[in-house]
Amino acid sequence: MATKDFDRNPISIGEKALWDERLGVFRVKVQGNRDVGSLVILRSADMPISHLDSTLPHKQTKLGQFLRERLELAVNAAITRGSHEVGNGLSLLGPDQPKDV
C-alpha cells in the first residue's frame, strides 16, 4: 500500500479481543479508517495483555479501559506514520486482508 494514499484518520478499537486459535493471535476490530480493519496481537506483544484469555467460551476477552486506551494511542501513532507495524507483537490488517495472514 502506498503511504501517500494511506488513510490517516484516527481510529477507535473494539472493546473485546477475539482469540484466533488457528493462528495463535488475538484480533481486535478497528473502526474509523478505510485502510485498517483489525489489530493483531501476538502473545509476545509489549503491552499489558496477560488478562487476555484464549480458553474462554466464544474466545472473547474484554480489553479493559487501560489496555484499550494504550492500544488506540499506539495504533493511531502507527497510522500517522503510515505504518502497519504498531509495535512489538502488534500489527494492523486491512479490512479486506485474508484472515490467515
Secondary structure layout:
Blueprint: E1 12-13, E2 16-20, E3 25-31, E4 38-41, E5 60-62, H1 65-81, E6 85-87, E7 90-93
Antiparallel strand pairs: 1-3, 2-3, 2-5, 3-4, 4-7, 6-7
Strand content: 25-35%
- What does the overall shape look like? globular
Query: Order of helices and strands, N to C?
Result: EEEEEHEE
Number of domains: 1
Tell me how many strands there are: 7
SSE class: alpha+beta
Q: Treating each run of at least 4 consecutive H or I residues as one helix, how many helices?
A: 1
Oligomer: single chain
**What is the mean pLDDT?**
85
Our measurement of the CA-to-CA distance between the termini, rounded to an integer number of angstroms, reads 15 Å
> Major sheet: size, sense and barrel closure?
7 strands, antiparallel
Query: How much helix, percentage-wise, in residues?
Result: 10-25%
From the alpha carbons, calculate the radius of gyration and give it in angstroms.
Answer: 13 Å
Contiguous low-pLDDT stretches (5 residues minimum) are: none
Protein name: DUF1488 family protein
Organism: Dongia sedimenti
Characterization of the model:
The model has no long low-confidence stretch (mean pLDDT 85). The chain has 101 residues and is of the alpha+beta class. The protein is built from one helix and seven strands. The longest helix is centred in the last third of the chain and has 17 residues. The relative contact order is 0.26. 17% of the residues lie in helices and 28% in strands.
Please describe the structure with a list of short key phrases separated by commas or semicolons:
7 strands; 101 residues; globular; DUF1488 family protein; 17% helix; 7-stranded antiparallel sheet; alpha+beta
